[in-house]
Write a structure and sequence with these properties.
This protein is an all-alpha fold and about 300 residues long. The protein has 14 helices and 2 strands, in the order ααααβααααααααααβ. The protein has 2 domains: about 1-30, no CATH class; about 35-299, no CATH class. Strands 1-2 form a two-stranded parallel ribbon. The protein is elongated and about 70 Å long. Bound molecules: zinc ion (ZN) (2 copies).
Length: about 300
Amino acid sequence: MLPYATVNEAETAIGRSLTAAETLWFNYTANISDYILYCHNILFLFLIFTIVPLFYVFIELILRDYVAAYKIQPKVKFSLYHHFKCYSRVMRMFILVVGPLQLVSYPSIQMIGVRTSLPLPSLMEIISQLIVYFLIEDYTNYWIHRLFHSKWGYEKIHKVHHEYTAPIGFAAPYAHWIEVLILGIPSFLGPAIVPGHMITFWLWIALRQIEAIETHSGYDFPWTLTKYIPFYGGADYHDYHHYVGGQSQSNFASVFTYCDYIYGTDKGYRYQKRLLQQLRDGSRGDGGSYAAGPDIKLE
Ligand SMILES: [Zn+2]
Ligand SMILES: [Zn+2]
């Protein structure tokens, strides 16, 4: 909650007029506690987990023929029921783990110093902090994910996330509850090291989840803006990790490709890509997917 009773008081305190965005923030947060502002994340996550994957369900079920060329595992077909089943599993996890975690983790946000005050951060500050958060999360997530692929970690925890050998958007947050809790740590690490404004924190949580849904979508569209981000992994990159499953010692990184390159865990993927290119050059015409084989229909 802001420590100013009026806009004038706020303007005197920061020594200038409020921008339109700051006036909006002042009016919106005037009577809302910082705890409730933090808990907005529950609503944002619910909306993201529900709405963003629907885009991919729509193209999977309605535009299937038009987007077939971009489906990464074209032999695997999902029914509406299959998508809904995955969504209901995610929502159960959301109600039992993600939501309660948000409700009780507010003290950590207070401790690291995420602020709700004025002035609002500049666009440059928001973007630079988001880049730092993504880099820190990507690096720590890489190592935790690698540990999950140890025999014990995979069998006891991580194999739940790998139930989807051909991932779908709804399956992005689908994992064992212990994995959900542990992977919350890399997400908090960036804001803990470089604390920013609550708006930056909201954006960070939202963008990271949208990114995860895109990489689990099962579609690799050439026109996505993320193609312009240097070292960005994307859907094809993470899809391969699911395709090879428990045996996988490849493509551990959640966002970028540099960790797998540095630590040599992208060799299988690179080899497959080279092989497919050779097959295409030799006009075998298998659609360019590493997932050649019989059609699989999932009801
Ligand atoms: Zn994995
Ligand atoms: Zn995954």
